[in-house]
């Protein structure tokens, strides 16, 4: 049997085994998702496993399949959705579309700053459509229609909004290497500060401003040193660019 089919068959077997058992008392889907998100917050994606989630809940791993037949992928998608929280606020008739987009980006960043280890996962879930969020899609489309986009241009504008929403925050919250983060940070800082002014006059001349405040030129993460002014600039630049694309 091909590896992909074998994996799918294994997942179905586990799901059937879980459904054959009685629903574990006191265990709910919400409790499983909450525990999974807490585990990701504390241990990162490298430390996440169904076995560890089950251990924290005091149940066998097969019990998780009673509520989440899709197993690991389904649970990761649910955890990503939980991290998003209330990001997709309703767009109401009369709302200012630009202000709504501005608020969307801010809520997304605020939520992900509370769960920074979810940032790379969330991008993957949205790209793969594993974590479908119809409310987010509906409200973004409503805001863009109010701005004046329609037809194929509406689709293009929608894709731009989703990509922009994820892009800055994913970079800002990108994790350090997990094997030796302190050693890596020290070595990287030393490398940057040893650059020759004759070879890199603009970089070295602006290094005091750039250090840990600019992408590529930083050895501290976005949780430790938020890139807030850059984020604000990014949002306003994006909205201005989007406004310029509204059909006449």
UniProtKB/TrEMBL annotation:
DNA-binding feature ranges: 49-68
Which parts of this chain are annotated as the region Disordered? 1-27
Record bears the keyword Iron-sulfur: no
Name the Pfam families for this protein: TetR_C_1, TetR_N
Q: Which PANTHER family match?
A: HTH-TYPE TRANSCRIPTIONAL REGULATOR RUTR, TRANSCRIPTIONAL REGULATORY PROTEIN
Organism of origin: Phreatobacter stygius
Please tell me whether the keyword Transcription regulation is annotated for this protein.
Answer: yes
Protein name as annotated: TetR family transcriptional regulator
Q: Where is the composition biased (Low complexity)?
A: 1-12
């Amino acid at each position: 049997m091909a590896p992909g089919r074998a994996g799918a068959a294994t997942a179905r077997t586990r799901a059937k085994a879980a459904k054959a058992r009685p629903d574990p008392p006191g265990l709910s889907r919400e409790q499983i998702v909450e525990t999974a998100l807490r585990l990701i917050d504390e241990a990162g994606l490298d430390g996440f496993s169904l076995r560890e989630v089950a251990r924290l809940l005091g149940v066998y791993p097969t019990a998780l399949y009673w509520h989440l037949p899709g197993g690991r992928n389904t649970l990761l998608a649910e955890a990503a959705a939980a991290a998003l929280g209330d990001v997709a606020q309703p767009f109401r008739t009369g709302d200012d579309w630009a202000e709504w987009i501005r608020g969307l980006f801010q809520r997304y960043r605020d939520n992900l700053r509370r769960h920074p280890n979810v940032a790379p996962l969330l991008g993957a879930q949205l790209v793969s459509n594993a974590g479908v969020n119809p409310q987010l899609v509906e409200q973004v489309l409503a805001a863009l229609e109010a701005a004046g986009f329609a037809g194929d241009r509406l689709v293009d504008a929608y894709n731009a909004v989703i990509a922009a929403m994820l892009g800055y925050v994913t970079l800002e919250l990108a994790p350090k290497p997990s094997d030796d983060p302190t050693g890596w940070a020290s070595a990287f800082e030393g490398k940057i500060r040893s650059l020759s002014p004759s070879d890199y006059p603009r970089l070295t001349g602006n290094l005091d401003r750039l250090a840990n405040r600019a992408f590529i030129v930083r050895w501290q993460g976005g949780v430790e040193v938020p890139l807030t002014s850059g984020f604000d600039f990014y949002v306003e630049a994006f909205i201005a660019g989007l406004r310029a694309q509204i059909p006449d």
